[in-house]
Task: structure prediction
Amino acid sequence: MRRLTSQIGQCGRQRLWQKALSLLHEAKHGRQQPNLVVYSAAINACGKSKQWEFAVGLLAEVSSVLLQPDEIAYNAAISACSSHES
Result:
């Protein structure tokens, strides 16, 4: 999961939100279910690209896969929504 988190984080830094979502999608359909850290990185990547709708959708998805969102996930989603105002 560290490698995936790093790759998604890099996508966020480069504003490649679609690539970040693609990596998340591939992981979800692979052998391991992404953990909360991976989801948080994807939420952050969407937020950095001002894709707040996708960020909020991912936050909702976290709960649907039986993960409990934490402060990092919530803050990433809040930041994504506030970037919409800019």
About this structure: The chain has a mean pLDDT of 93.
